[in-house]
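G., the chain you wanted modeled:
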Amino acid sequence: MITIEEAIKQKKFNSEHHKLMVNLLYTSSWVERIHQRFFKGHGITSQQYNVLRILRGQYPNSASVGIVLDRMIDKASNITRLVDKLAAKKYVTRTENPENRRMQQLLITQKGLDFLLSLDPLVELQINVSEKITNAEAKLLNNMLDKLRD
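Predicted structure as tokens:
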């Protein structure tokens, strides 16, 4: 196991809370790099995958761009650009409001559903990167992270 001190070559932190924040940021970046490499190999980004998962959760109903953006993990994403790329791949369709483009309704297509279905077992293997910790530890960490955001 490599400690955060070893990973970033820093021996001293102002406090355990400071160390925690650095560790969270570093670990978040580490997980994001793993996901980006994985999704790039399948021709999408992790943000595009997130949009597709949200739309699959809404299926057979459509969802507004606002709903999708509200549910996204990375809320700073350029949703219009993401939807344009997914529509170009025919993974989503959109119905535009001529007065306000942000009021588009998005619907995952059968091609998008099939694509996600093909990725599901592979994503499950990706999630197992965390099998170094037990289910009980994962539950405790989830509770602690939820508490941190509260």
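The chain is about 60% helix and 10% strand.

Shout if anything looks off.
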